[in-house]
Amino acid sequence: MQGANMLLDEPVRLTSVLTPVKPKVFPSLTKIVGTLGPNSHSVEVIQECLTAGMAVARFDFSWMDATYHQETLNNLRKAAQNVNKLCPVMLDTLGPEIQVHNSTGGPIELKAGNHVTITPDISKAPSSEILPIKFGDLAKAVKKGDTLFIGQYLFTGSETTSSWLEVVETSGENVECLVTNTATLAGPMFTLHVSKAHVSLPTLSDYDKEVISTWGLHNSVDIISLSHTRSAEDVRELRSFLQSHDLQDTQIYAKVENTEGLDHFDEILQEADGVIISRGDLGIDLPPEDVFISQKTAIKKCNLAGKPVIITRVVDSMIDNLRPTRAEATDVANAVLDGTDGILLGAETHRGPYPVDAVSTVGRICAEAESVYNQLVHFKKLVKHVGDPMPHEESVASSAVRTAMKVKAAAIVVFTFSGRAARLVAKYKPPMPVLAVVFPREGSDPTKWRSYGTTQARQCFAARGVYPLMASTEEAETGGLTREEYGIKLAQNYGRSVGMLKPFDRLIIFQKIGDSSVVKIIECDSS
């Protein structure tokens, strides 16, 4: 086994595996995205999830309507206010999904060896012989021998609810398939996945545009997760749409979930603000033995580009159980060691009975993996990748991290307006947290949900190790403090309140003064 990313040569670390883990009073550096739904809808549960370590709240619009999601978002705002914590809102688009609407509502039995016809004739009632879809060009997209996957596996995590179909022939607009495994399709809707074939549906659907231009605009969403991103043009199209609807500050995370997205990954990464590796759909599109290398390659590319990368589908068993399997726990840890910035929880927090436990359990696994992550190896690879001569901003950011490691600083404090400086420092994955002191632009009102500064501060939460703090120029002036004095005081007060800092701990201060960037070392106050 290669240990390039682990400090396995330290006997103290190996011995400590057998000793009780000292509990952390602040979350892991790796961020946890929680999907809010029926079991995480109330103020109380959302508040517990935030306290347990949820950093980003995801709203999945493939389920329920805008009214329901608005109620949940209102509850999120109350919960965030109660725990005095910023939390970005991520809107997840539907994308080019092909769905079978089970109008009868009854279970549909598909038996191995039988044939079933996929048809665009939605007047037909779904049955074990025929399944109607709202897409007329499926017969043009597939050929004999192609694989289709239908059911609710991506929702339930159980293959008994889904079936693999093999295309036998196409006839006009109909596609006749052979059922290769017995399954019961249950529920009001099933998703049909076409493996390794281009489906001529837009990545940004009309439904997505409606949701973004209404609910998204009304709530000034911080991040949009663009489902089924297949090309850089998909990202550019969404960017243009956001700009035309006064959402130019909203970030775009490209959700890569098929071979098309992987084929165009480099171009997508260049255009997007972040990437989500959606392993549910990728696990259908790719052979099982290819999923891990795709994940590792994608994470490495995102790390080198300095853009957040999040992975999905890590603890499916926690949809029903209080504890993850050993394999799932190892999977989470390995993702952290690979360099992922975040873990996305879907059904585990959306409708699972243990949303808070899912967040806290994954957080503990992440924190343990971070303690053996060989940050120095990553740092050297990144510096080599950036090359010489190193751009000024990269040079100062990397120097801040190098200095923090040399003096064993407890945290790095970054002064920023846009959040870019904090993300640049986070790119080098320091082993200590980055406290981003975000000052609003002149004329902005930091008390409002949507203002330049508050949006950027919330967006910082998606980056590994970054904890944004919303600063107030008025408070600094009222207290007779300079911006720097006020920012340092704000960071120290927060750090002490969450157990991150103690008296005489060293802090690295990184700020821009005029056209220059300054890095300096201070000690925490004794008070």
From TrEMBL:
Coiled-coil portions: none
SUPFAM superfamilies according to UniProt: Phosphoenolpyruvate/pyruvate domain (SSF51621), PK beta-barrel domain-like (SSF50800), PK C-terminal domain-like (SSF52935)
Obligatory cofactor(s): Mg(2+); K(+)
GO molecular function: ATP binding; kinase activity; magnesium ion binding; potassium ion binding; pyruvate kinase activity
Main location: cytoplasm
Keyword Ribosomal protein carried by entry: no
Pathway linked to the protein: Carbohydrate degradation; glycolysis; pyruvate from D-glyceraldehyde 3-phosphate: step 5/5
EC number from the UniProt entry: 2.7.1.40
Record's keyword annotation contains Secreted: no
Assigned GO CC terms: cytosol
Domain Pyruvate kinase barrel: 30-359
Keywords: ATP-binding, Cytoplasm, Glycolysis, Kinase, Magnesium, Metal-binding, Nucleotide-binding, Potassium, Pyruvate, Transferase
All copies of domain Pyruvate kinase C-terminal, residue ranges: 394-513
Catalytic activity from the UniProt record: pyruvate + ATP = phosphoenolpyruvate + ADP + H(+)
Compartment(s): Cytoplasm, Cytosol
Quaternary structure note: Homotetramer.
UniProt record similarity statement: Belongs to the pyruvate kinase family.
Protein name: Pyruvate kinase
